Amino acid sequence: MTKDLGFDTLQVHAGTEPDPATGARQVPIYQTTAYVFRDADHAAALFNLQEVGYIYSRLTNPTVGALANRIAALEGGAGAVCTSSGHAAQIMALYPLMGPGLNIIASTRLYGGTYTQFTQVFKRFGWSAKFVDFDDPQAVADAIDDNTRAIFCESIANPAGVPTDIDAIAKVANDAGLPLVVDNTSATPYLCKPIEHGATLVIHSTTKYLTGNGTVTGGAIVDSGTFDWSASGKFPSLSEPEPAYHGINFHEALGGMAYTFYSIAVGLRDLGMTMNPQGAHYTLMGIETLSLRMQKHVENAQKIAEWLEADPRIEAVSYAGLASSPYNERAKRVYPKGAGALFTVTLKGGYDACVGVVNNLELFSHVANLGDTRSLIIHSASTTHRQLSSEQRAAAGAGDNVVRLSIGIEDADDLIADLDQALSKATG
Ligand SMILES: *Cc1c(COP(=O)(O)O)cnc(C)c1O
User: Fold this and answer.
1) Do both 149 and 71 map to the same domain?
2) Same domain, 354 and 406
3) Whether the predicted model's global pTM rises above the 0.85 cut
4) Known PANTHER family for this protein (predicted)?
5) Where are the alpha helices (DSSP H) in 326-401?
């Protein structure tokens, strides 16, 4: 067919074909470490990147490769690499770009674990992150210096579900000749394709919506294939002979696939943050229904946010899909299919009411996760943000009186009834 395939078709078919050896219609789990070379010349061609094929599963595996190609197709990228977790994807995404003394500009609104990685782990590599409010693109531009190598944000940002104006940030990145890296975990390519808004790299925690049912951890990095790595001289790993891979110049040799090949040939080879084939299988199963689930997640989130906003026990609801949200116009423009299913709720009863709600909910699970088919809740102040001071928690959008909801795909009326009874018990 010459027609461009739609999202619902791609999520089922992209990256896969009937197994060439057996005709198996579903993607087999290639549970193997190594692959037999046809002969010594074949082996040499594979190691020289002259021929594409399989060497060793730390680098490539057919099951994992099928998932990478499917995610690349859904995001509209040139290539993708899967990783062992979302956090692995973040480090791997930046690895080809960074070095000691270099920095990234990152949004203040991030997943808690990402903030820790950027502040603590980065230091050990000699990297650093400057945190800026991405609602102010000029502040992002002002923070860039000669040592900046990337700009990093989430599409629909944790924990309050704030939709980032990716077009505005991409313009700043483009003007500075820097790649924009967007963590698209909570929007998924169904609600937003950051590459269409100017992003260079898109990363995922496939642990969340892409798998969708809370079974495995995984990550992915998608490259748009359009960034000119050679223009500024700032990305020598990609634009100059790479000593870690017998002096190959990746950009010259591989063009739009330079970043993807580098991430496999050097990133996965040397860092080893590889996704396993069993994990890729679960995510391939999940991704087949991504659009159907996201439609229900978003529909439920909208209903529940509206119900909560009208309830006298509630002080505020952060959902950008609400007409009252300061981000409603932006959400409609950048995320027209919905503002995601992640938001925070501020309770009038404060810390005690939050703990009471969490303890009394029956359908919502109290877990440190998001993007499951099941509805989830977490009171950050008594869990993930426990080590922070009250002021630090408030600044992170995880104040003592705030709970974060990740709305699942159950019946919205059942979820509302559950919230209603838990609120009643918690607030007496
Ligand atoms: C969960 C999450 C991560 C980390 O992913 P893991 O798979 O848990 O390592 C990164 N970013 C966002 C937005 C997340 O929700």
Assistant:
1) yes
2) yes
3) yes
4) HOMOCYSTEINE/CYSTEINE SYNTHASE (PTHR43797), HOMOCYSTEINE_CYSTEINE SYNTHASE (PTHR43797:SF2)
5) 328-334, 350-360, 390-395
Domain match, 146 and 253 both: yes
Ligand 1 pocket, residues with Cβ under 6 angstroms: 85-87, 111, 113-114, 154, 158, 183, 185-186, 205, 207-208, 217, 219, 370
Whole-number Cα distances in Å, 249 to 143, 258, 260: 31, 9, 13
Structural domain span for residue 416: 291-427
Name the domain count of the chain. 2
Q: Are residues 248 and 341 in the same domain?
A: no
b/e 34-60 (16+ beta carbons within 10 angstroms → b):
eeebeeeeeeeebeebeeeebeebbbb
- By most ligand atoms within 8 Å of CB, the mutation choice from 92, 158, 182, 207 for ligand 1 is 207
Tens of pLDDT, residue by residue over 284-342, are 999 999 999 999 999 999 999 999 999 999 999 999 999 999 999 999 999 999 999 99
Residue 2: the pLDDT is: 67
Q: What is the pLDDT of residues 151-162, one digit of tens each?
A: 999 999 988 999
Q: What CATH number is given to the structural domain containing 107?
A: 3.40.640.10
Looking at residue 156, what is its pLDDT?
97
